[in-house]
Amino acid sequence: MDLEELSERLEKISVRYGERLGFERDADWFLLKLQEEVGELTQAYLQHTGRARSKGATPDDIRDTLHQEFADVLCQLLLLARHHDVDLPREVERKWLVHES
C-alpha cells in the first residue's frame, strides 16, 4: 500500500468525519486525536497482556481490538503528518534507513 495514496484516502474520510460531527480539524485536533488513539492502543495492550480488566471481552475480541488500535494510530499519524506537509517516506529514509548499511 502506497503511503501517499493511503493518506489521500484517509484525508477524505477524516474530512467527512469532521463535517458530520461539526468540528474543525485544526493542528491541535490532529495531535490530540493521535494522543487519544495512542491511549486506546495502550488500553487494548494492557487488556491483551492481562494487566487490565477485560470488561467482558473475549480473548479474541481483545486481540482484534488491539490490532484495530494499531491501525487507528497509524492512520491518525498519517493524517497529522499530512496536515503538517511531512513527507514520511523521505523522513523515514533520512532518520532510519540511513542506518541500514
Write up this protein:
It is a single chain. The chain is mostly helical. It has a single domain (3-99), classed as MazG-like (Helix Hairpins, Orthogonal Bundle), CATH 1.10.287.1080. The protein has four helices and no strands. α1 (3-21) crosses α3 and α2 (27-48) packs antiparallel against α3. The longest helix has 25 residues, at 59-83. The relative contact order is 0.14. The model has no long low-confidence stretch (mean pLDDT 97).
What secondary-structure arrangement, pairings included, does this model have?
Elements: H1 3-21, H2 27-48, H3 59-83, H4 88-95
Short description:
The protein has helices at 3-21, 27-48, 59-83, 88-95. With 101 residues, it is mainly alpha-helical. Helix 2 runs antiparallel to helix 3.
